[in-house]
Predict the structure.
Amino acid sequence: MYEFAYQKAGSVADAVKAAKAAEDGKFLAGGQTLIPTLKLRLARPGAVVDLGGIAALKGISTAGGGLTIGAMTTHEQVASSADVKKAIPALAALAHMIGDPAVRNRGTIGGSIANNDPAADYPAAVLGLGATVKTDGREIQADQFFKGLFETALNAGEMIVSVTFPTPDKAAYMKFRNPASRFAMIGVFVAKTKGGVRVAVTGGGNGVFRVKAMEDALTKNWAAAALDGVSVPASQVNGDIHGSAEYRAHLIGVMAKRAVAAAG
């Protein structure tokens, strides 16, 4: 690692102030991505601001009719929450699919979304449900939040405080795991919401993306069979040593149908 200053913040305001005061200051949530990045010397922040002591960033609330999850809430807390299981069972199931117990007990929803790994699970839920990301200074709609490979709408020093998910009529997430990393080779989140049908795909591109053709088909007929003949061109999907673009494009259709069937 390179040398950097370490600060454990006691409040959101203190954390933001410390990060902005440093050269390329970084927030430390669960550390599942940042720590390995530092070890490999792929990042050289002037300061690392630990968010672990900020109580206001933790917890799950159903006030206001939706489901609001604090940025420092761990994957395991989301997966095991009775409130999440009641309001959005698909979100609890998705959280339970992330990594392994060690990862789920350290990783956080805010850290995952801010990192925006192209094969991460939470971005599919955020985009698939049309969630709202609240930061220390504003609210960002899901469709405007994810910008591409490890890129989001967050400004330098801006911090995620919570994420609010509207309760869908139906929703499900299906994922084809990489057997080693357990990241999604392809993951598809489908949701029938008050604002319409949404289909979000992770693991297939430079970031999470929606599939309008599938959304249109499911709007007409919410059934797995409605997706027969609807596909994502392989030219729009990335491939690697674990699976070609053609293979992943095929998986999108398979996972989408399974998700619709699971949603009921």
